[in-house]
Design brief:
Oligomer: single chain
Distance between the termini: 15 Å
Strand content: 15-25%
Largest sheet: 5 strands, parallel
Mean pLDDT: 89
Structural class: alpha/beta
Radius of gyration: 16 Å
Order of helices and strands: EHEEEHEEHEHEHHEH
Low-confidence stretches: none
Number of helices: 7
Length: 192
């Protein structure tokens, strides 16, 4: 049976979104699975495209109905993020391969319930990584040091829990994309 779900995770600034977008560009059968969140949209974010933006009450209601089977709380911004099962199941019904960008709790759920393959993107710790992370979420030098320590702990403790670890070297995102694509094909995904 062909596999239809894969998950890409990694620290902020590791290039996970770029890798997924590049795979989608190459293979129109692949779609980005949209997750749910309780934070406010950023400029240019669209409900149902980037995330499903829910109130805390609606998020809890969706959890109670089994539509958000896993979630995590991001304390720094007091927001909940979770896999939105109706979006995933609708894409699968249409015969799509679904790429999900989420945390380890989603990886465990998707492996168990959807036979997903999981990837952890390992950043290179050069200036490009710092620039991407700071551009996405402006921060002070102290906040950057805290983020860097968090990223190193994430790599040490969580990366080994994923099926594959892919290094995204500065300026070589194409290599990381190719490694993910080759692995997906080897794992039984029919991308074309």
């Amino acid at each position: 049976m062909n596999k239809q779900v894969f998950l890409v995770a990694g620290p902020t600034g590791s290039g996970k979104d770029t890798i997924i977008r590049e795979i989608i560009k190459r293979y129109p059968k692949v779609e980005y699975g949209v997750t749910a969140v309780t934070r406010q949209p950023r400029p240019n974010e669209v409900n149902g495209v980037n995330y499903y933006f829910l109130t805390n009450e609606k998020f809890e209601e969706e959890m109670a109905h089994g539509n958000i089977p896993e979630h995590y709380h991001r304390k720094s911004i007091d927001a909940y993020y979770g896999l939105y099962k109706p979006d995933l199941d609708e894409r699968l019904k249409r015969g799509r391969i679904v790429a999900i960008q989420a945390q380890i709790i989603a990886a465990e759920y998707l492996k168990k319930n959807y036979n997903a393959t999981t990837f952890f993107i390992m950043p290179s710790f050069g200036s490009e990584f710092e620039h991407r992370a700071r551009t996405r979420a402006p921060m002070t030098d102290a906040e950057w040091q805290e983020r860097l320590e968090f990223t190193k702990r994430e790599i040490e403790k969580e990366a080994p829990l994923y099926d594959y670890q892919i290094r995204n070297e500065e300026g070589r995102v194409e290599d990381a994309v190719n490694q993910v694509v080759e692995t997906l094909k080897k794992e039984g995904y029919v991308l074309e």
